[in-house]
């Protein structure tokens, strides 16, 4: 499964995220927006 999220550069740095790194994703249904590709 693939998912994407919008983060500010500061938030990504604070979380220690790096391109290609693995992450766990958890969302609340009320916070989800769907976009057609």
From TrEMBL:
Residues 5-33 form the Transport-associated OB type domain. It comes from the Bacteria. This is Transport-associated OB type 1 domain-containing protein. The lineage of its organism: Bacteria, Bacillati, Actinomycetota, Actinomycetes, Micrococcales. It holds the Pfam family TOBE. InterPro entries: Mo/tungstate-bd_C_term_dom, Transp-assoc_OB_typ1. It comes from Cryobacterium gelidum.
């Amino acid at each position: 499964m693939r998912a994407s999220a919008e983060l500010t550069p500061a938030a990504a740095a604070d979380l220690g995220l790096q391109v290609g790194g693995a992450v766990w994703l958890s969302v609340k249904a009320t916070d989800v927006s769907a976009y057609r590709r």
